[in-house]
Specification:
The protein folds into two domains: 64 residues, 434 Repressor (Amino-terminal Domain) (Orthogonal Bundle), CATH 1.10.260; 101 residues, Jelly Rolls (Sandwich). A hairpin with a 4-residue loop joins strand 1 and strand 2. Helix 2 crosses helix 3. Helix content is 23%, strand content 32%. The strands form two sheets. A six-stranded antiparallel sheet has the order 1-2-3-10-5-8, with no helix packed on it. A four-stranded antiparallel sheet has the order 4-9-6-7, with no helix packed on it. The protein is α+β, with helices and mostly antiparallel strands.
């Protein structure tokens, strides 16, 4: 069986079942015979482009959604596999563990600040959720200063000017979840 055929079969079945549609109902929506739909779902037939377009239009999904492979249920990422994004001459390192995905509306990083480093962050949409992994930081949000250390957390709007300072003699690191809500 062709791998793309299996992917189409799995996605078609998922779309149909998520909408609680029988094959007969799906046939009525799409104009594709019940027998053909059953063959596609069972990976016994590979649909033509025209047939796939009919199904996509009937279900009101994108054509490409049929060939997208599902993300694995479990993803393991090691910091050693990531290339950090550096700023402040390498004293501020951002490791992108889970980059932004429009369906999930968040991204997760680990950030490290070397001793003596201050990073002035650009304002941005959304909220920041900071959880200190190790060390001590001074987080300035607007005119307020917040001393945080290992085990502490802080939440604030990214649209407020903010900075991170490590005035200690040890490297500080923190988890940073950035959440982007729906536009109002």
């Amino acid at each position: 069986m062709d791998p793309i055929q299996a992917t189409i079969a799995k996605n078609l079945t998922k779309f149909r079942k998520n909408r609680n549609l029988s094959l007969t109902q799906l046939s009525e929506l799409t104009g594709v015979s019940k027998a053909m739909l059953a063959q596609i779902e069972n990976s016994k037939s590979s649909p033509t482009v025209t047939t796939l377009w009919k199904i996509a239009n009937g279900l009101q999904v994108s054509f490409s959604s049929f060939i997208q492979e599902e993300e694995p249920d479990i993803r393991k990422i090691s910091i050693n596999e990531l290339e950090p994004i550096a700023d402040n001459e390498g004293n501020y390192l951002v490791y992108p563990f889970f980059p932004y995905h429009p369906e999930k509306k968040f991204e997760i990083y680990i950030v490290t600040l070397k001793p003596g480093c201050t990073h002035e962050s650009k304002t941005h949409l959304g909220d920041e959720y900071l959880l200190v992994k190790e060390g001590k930081l001074l987080v300035t949000v607007g005119m307020q200063e917040h001393k945080v250390q290992s085990g502490d957390a802080l939440q604030f709007s990214g649209s407020t000017p903010h900075s991170y300072t490590n005035s200690s003699k040890e490297t500080a690191s923190f988890f940073l979840l950035m959440y982007y809500p729906e536009p109002q």
